[in-house]
Amino acid sequence: MPNETNIEYHVSITTGNSEFLVKNLIEIESLSFKRGERVIYDNISLQIPAGKTTAVMGPSGIGKTTLLKLIGGQLRPDAGDIKFKQESIPSMSRSRLFKVRRQMSMLFQSGALFTEMSVFDNIAYPLREHTQLSEALIETVVLMKLQAVGLRGASKLMPSELSGGMARRAALARAIALDPELIMYDEPFAGQDPISMGVLVKLIKELNNALNLTSVVVTHDVTEVMSIADYVYILADKRIIGAGTPEQIRQSDSDLVQQFLQGKADGPVPFHYPANTLEQEFMGAN
Amino acid sequence: MEWLANLGKSTLDRFAAVGRASYVLAGSLIAVPQLKNVPLTIKQMYVVGVQSLSIIMVSGLFIGMVMALQGYTILVDYGAEGSLGPMVALSILRELGPVVTALLFAGRAGSALTAEIGLMKATEQLSSLEMMAIDPLRRIVAPRLWAGLLSMPMLTVIFSAVGILGGHLVGVEWLGVDAGSYWSIMQSTVEWNADVMNGVIKSIVFAFVVTWIAIFKGYDSVPTSEGISAATTQTVVYSSLAVLGLDFVLTAIMFGIE
Amino acid sequence: MTSRKSEILVGLFVALTIAATLMLAMNVASKGSVGQGETYNLYAKFDNIGGLKVRSSVKVGGVTIGRVESIHLDPEDFTPVVTLSIVKQYNAFPETSSVSILTSGLLGEQYVGLQPGFSIDDIENLAEGDYIADTKSALVLEDLIGQFLFSRDND
Ligand SMILES: Nc1ncnc2c1ncn2[C@@H]1O[C@H](COP(=O)(O)OP(=O)(O)OP(=O)(O)O)[C@@H](O)[C@H]1O
Ligand SMILES: [Mg+2]
Fold first, then answer.
1. ipTM score of the complex?
2. Could A112 and B133 be called an inter-chain contact, meaning their C-beta atoms sit closer than 8 Å?
3. What is the pLDDT of residue A283?
C-alpha cells in the first residue's frame, strides 16, 4: 500500500512541475517532525510555487497548522530542510528570521487578534510597527483592508465584541495589511456563512492575481479549495497522500484521496487518533 | 535507581527553567532604549501601579494604625510611649513597607501579569506577533517588566508615608501621645540613608524578583486554562517565598552584624 | 481617550510618590541631619562603654549633634576608644569639654552625653582628630549594686 501511494505522489509532482514553470517560493525537503514521541511528519517533501495558491488539506490533527508553523520558523524540524527563496529557515539566525518573516504573514486558526486594542488598531499594528506611514495614510489603508473583508463598520469594536466569523475576517484583514509576499491562511473559511465565504474566496483569489502573492490555504472545505487552488496537497498518516491540480486530485484513483474528498467515514484514512482497537480497550481487563 | 533518574531529571529541568527565565529577562531588558516602548510602559504603569494604589494605601494606613496601637500598649508600660514615633517609622520603613508592598504587589499585579501574558500565549497572540516579525519580549514583556520595576518602589514609598500617618492618627489623635514627641523623636532617630534608603533598596530588589517571576511564569506557562491558573498560583507562591527569603538576607546585610 | 486618562493618572501616581518622598525627607528623617552633611571626628577613651553601640547618638543637653562612628579597643592599654562623628556646624566645643555615657530612661538606649567645658582665652576648641580627655564611663548596674552592698557592710 505505501508503495502505491508513493508512486502516485512522484507522478503528480512531475506533472505538477511541468505544469508550473515557475520558481518555488518554498521548498520542503524530506522533512521529519515529532511532537514528543508522536511522529507528525515522516520524511515529506513538497513545494509551494510562487505566485500561486496552494491548498493543504487533511484530517483534523494531522499537522496542518504544525506545517505552517514550521514554514514560519516557529518550530524546528527534527530532520530535513525548509527553504524560503532558497534560504534555509531552520538554520537562520533569529534576526535574519525576523527579516524574512516581514515577507510572510499568517492568519491563525484562532484569529489571534490582540484583545486589548480595537479592530482598527489591530490592523494598524503591523503598519505602525514596520512602516513610517503617516497616521492619515494608515487610516486609509486600514479602512480599505476592513472594507475588503466587509468589516469597515466594525472598526471601533473590541475583539471581544466580534463573533467568531467576524474575528477571523478581522484577522484576515490584519494578515494582509502589509501586502506580504506569502500569506498562510489557517482555516480562513471556518465559521463563515455562505456569503462571506464567497467573499473570502474571491478576496484570496484577487489578492493572488492582483498582487501576485503566494498563498497557502489550509482548509477542509473541499469545494472552496477546488475553486481557488492552483495546486493541492492532501496530508494524512504522516505523509502526503495526494498532490496535484484540483482536476488531477478529483480524478485521482487513490482510495485515500477519494475517501477524503467524499467525506466517507470508512476507508483507508483513519478517522481516529492512534489507539488500541476497541476490543483491546474494553476486553483488555479480562 | 528510579529515584536517582528522577532527581537528575528534575535538576536538569530546573536548570533549563533558569536558562529560559534568563533568556526572557535578557530579551526584555535589551529592549529598553526604544522610544516606542515609552507609551507602552506608561500604560502598563497604569495597570500595574495606579490600579494597585488603593490596596497599597489602605493596607499602609491600617498597618500603621495597628503598629501604633500595639506599640502604644507595650511602650506605655515602661513610660516610653514617646518612642512610639520611631518604633512605627522604623518598622515600616525598614521592614513592613517593602515586604508588605511586595507581597500585595505579587498578589495584585504579579498574578495579573502572569495571567495576561499566559492568556496571550494561549490565544496565539504571542505567536502572531512573532509571525509579524515583532519580538513579543520587546513589545509585550519589556514594558511590563519596566512598569513593575518602577512602580513597586514608588508604591513602597507611598505605603511607608501613609503608614506613618496612620500611626500618627492612632498614636497622637486617638491615644494622645504628644504630637511633638511622636514626630521629633522620630526625626532624631530615623536616618535617611540607613533607614529610608535601605527600605527603598529592598523594594527595588523585590520589584525585580516579583516582576521577573510574574512575566516568566506567564511566558513559560502551558497555554491552557489549567496551565495558566497553575502559573498564576506559582507566581504568587514563588514571589512571596522569594521576597521573604531575600528580606532576611538583605536585612542581615544592611542592619545585621557589625 | 483612554490612553490620555491613563497618562494623567500615571502622572498623579508619580506626583504622589514625590509627595511621599518629600514627607519622608522633611518630617520623618530630616531634622538632626545627622548622617548627612559634613562631619568631623573626635575620639574619647572610656574605661567601660557599657551598652554603647555604633550609631548611638551624641547629645548636648538632649540635642543630637552626632553619632558614634566606631568603637574599638586600643591595642596597647586595652581601653575602648570611641570615635564620635560630630556635625561640622557644632565645631566650637572647648578642650575642657567632657563626655559621659548616659542612659535615656531606666531601660533606654545608651548615648554619649557631651558636657561643654568653660572656655577661657588660652583654651582651644576641639578639632578633627582630637581626644577628649575628660570621660566618664557607663554606669554598670552590677558594679553599682556591688558598691551599695559594700558600703552597707562598712556601716
Ligand atoms: N504544543 C503541542 N504540544 C504537543 N503536541 C501538539 C502541540 N500542538 C499540536 N500538537 C499535536 O500535533 C498534532 C498536529 O496538530 P495541528 O494543530 O498541526 O493539527 P491540524 O492538522 O492543524 O488540525 P486541525 O485541522 O484540527 O486544526 C496534533 O495531533 C496535536 O496532538
Ligand atoms: Mg490546525
1. 0.85
2. no
3. 72
